[in-house]
Amino acid sequence: MAAKEARDPGKEVIDFLTQAGKTIVTAESCTGGMIAAALTDIPGSSAAFYGGYITYANSAKSRMIQVPARLIHDYGAVSNQVARAMADGARNTARVDFAVAVTGIAGPDGGTDKKPVGLVYVAVSSELATVVIEHRFGDIGRDAVRRATVEAAFELILQVLNSDDD
What's the CA gap between 29 and 53, in Å, rounded? Predict the structure, then answer.
């Protein structure tokens, strides 16, 4: 009996987008480019992956992808509102079909009672809508939070791609 091949959601994203003739951009804060790296690990990804913004600093979010500074001030960089603005801003700036954005607190520092370590927002923007999901991974370690965020991002992208396809 042959071993079952491990599922690769990043490859599923690239395959789907390539077949549909669509493109995607990333806007990453807490993952620092890990989503873009995972996508570019896939041979042929240039057919669908436009590029990525690493908007780690708040000013980068505003300057690079037009997140209103007022949103960051009012809600904080780690918020539903900023994740949504990151995804929409990246998609509009890059002029692509889809964008995925992530912002969160990977730790070990930076958490508060209201926004604990492990809190991450993942957003996917398309022409039809922008979807934002809040995740509370817990204080599982910086690397584990970042890896879980990448996985969550791919899962949300696939959900949006499959719903847009209907």
Answer: 9
Report phi then psi at 13, rounded to 5. -60, -50
pTM of the model: 0.95
Return the structure tokens found at 72.
Answer: 């960051």
DSSP sequence for the chain: -PPPPPP-HHHHHHHHHHHHT--EEEEESTTTTHHHHHHHTSTTGGGTEEEEEE--SHHHHHHHH---HHHHHHH-SSSHHHHHHHHHHHHHHHT-SEEEEEEE--SSS---SSS-TTEEEEEEE-SS-EEEEEEE--SS-HHHHHHHHHHHHHHHHHHHHHHHT-
Residues 37-66 pLDDT 10s:
999 999 999 999 999 999 999 999 999 999
Both tokens of residue 94?
Answer: 């890059």
Is 61:82 a contact under the CB 8 Å cutoff?
yes
Instruction: Please list, residue by residue across 135-161, b when 16 or more beta carbons sit within 10 angstroms of its beta carbon and e when fewer do.
Output: bebeeebbeebbbbbbebbbebbbebb
Provide the residue type at 68 as one letter.
P
